[in-house]
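Below is a filled-in request sheet from our internal design queue. Each sheet records the structural input a requester submitted and the sequence that came back. We keep these sheets so that new team members can see what a complete request looks like end to end.

REQUESTER: design group, bay 2
PRIORITY: normal
MODE: inverse folding
CHAIN LENGTH: 287
BACKBONE (tokenized):
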């Protein structure tokens, strides 16, 4: 039951809040509504001090938000719990990587390369380095709102291609370290087309829905025009005033809404362990 100690506090300018005083492993309906509301209002929330969040509890809480994605990088899934993708620089006894060490070190919206991209992602910090390894989030409502009227009009009905495999070769992905996929895994991920501007299905607000990680081209434009427009939209998305940088605390469960945010993981000193469990909730087809 709700204890009355629950609090939500804005940490960034428009996005990014912390939620204290709730236990996600034993969440009643009132607190579920509070957490869900905070996610819609702030785009990304850090639920602090989740010391009891076992893999089962994280999966059970995540399922209250929707169906869960089983990530294509099967080799980094938590044994016995394929709903959890390990983001980690830990090694197993035989020296193999247990997780995806450099996941998401580029601006992206999770699995925008599938027909029903992620509604939200939930990342639980089991071990963190003493500094660095922050995660940056960009407000894609603000990115859209900040465009001039002519650009908003130009992109209103445009669509764009998103691709996991093709983005490996793209110049926007230069330097990005991706999970290596087998040919069979790549074949499971054909290109998809989404609107450049989407309407958030719960808030009704418009958000830009292109990202340097996976958006490869605008449909119907020449290569040059597509590259130039995407470059301008990416630049407009990452103005410093639109960004919230999350500094992790151990036992944070950070939830972000991929329908209106991009995110970008940052490096850290790999002599320290950074070990995270991610669940991903499947969303609607963007419209
Ligand atoms: C991701 O899910 O893109 C990784 C985020 C992070 O490790 O900070």
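RETURNED SEQUENCE:
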């Amino acid at each position: 039951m709700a204890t009355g100690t629950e609090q939500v506090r804005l940490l960034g300018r428009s996005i990014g809040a912390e939620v204290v005083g709730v236990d996600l492993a034993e969440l009643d309906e009132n607190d579920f509504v509070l957490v869900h509301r905070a996610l819609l209002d702030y785009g990304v929330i850090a639920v602090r001090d989740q010391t009891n969040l076992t893999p089962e509890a994280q999966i059970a809480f995540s399922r209250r938000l929707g169906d869960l994605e089983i990530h294509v990088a099967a080799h980094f899934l938590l044994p016995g719990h394929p709903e959890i993708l390990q983001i980690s620089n830990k090694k197993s006894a035989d020296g193999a990587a247990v997780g995806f060490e450099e996941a998401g070190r580029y601006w992206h919206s999770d699995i925008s390369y599938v027909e029903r991209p992620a509604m939200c992602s939930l990342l639980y910090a089991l071990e963190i380095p003493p500094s660095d390894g922050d995660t940056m989030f960009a407000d894609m409502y603000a990115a859209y709102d900040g465009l001039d009227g002519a650009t908003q009009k130009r992109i209103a009905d445009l669509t764009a291609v998103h691709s996991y495999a093709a983005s490996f070769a793209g110049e926007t992905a230069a330097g990005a370290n991706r999970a290596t996929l087998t040919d069979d895994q790549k074949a499971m991920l054909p290109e998809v087309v989404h609107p450049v501007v989407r309407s958030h299905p719960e808030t009704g607000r418009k958000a830009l829905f292109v990202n340097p990680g996976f958006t490869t081209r605008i449909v119907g434009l020449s290569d040059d025009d597509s590259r130039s427009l995407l470059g301008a939209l990416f630049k407009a998305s990452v103005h410093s005033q639109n960004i919230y940088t999350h500094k992790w605390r151990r036992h944070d469960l950070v939830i972000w809404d991929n329908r209106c945010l991009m995110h970008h993981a940052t490096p850290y000193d790999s002599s320290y362990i950074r070990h995270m469990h991610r669940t991903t909730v499947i969303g609607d087809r963007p419209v």
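SHEET NOTES:
- The first strand starts at residue 7 and ends at 10.
- Residues 87, 103-104, 121, 123, 135, 263, 265, 276, 278 surround succinic acid (CB under 6 Å).
FILED BY: M.R.
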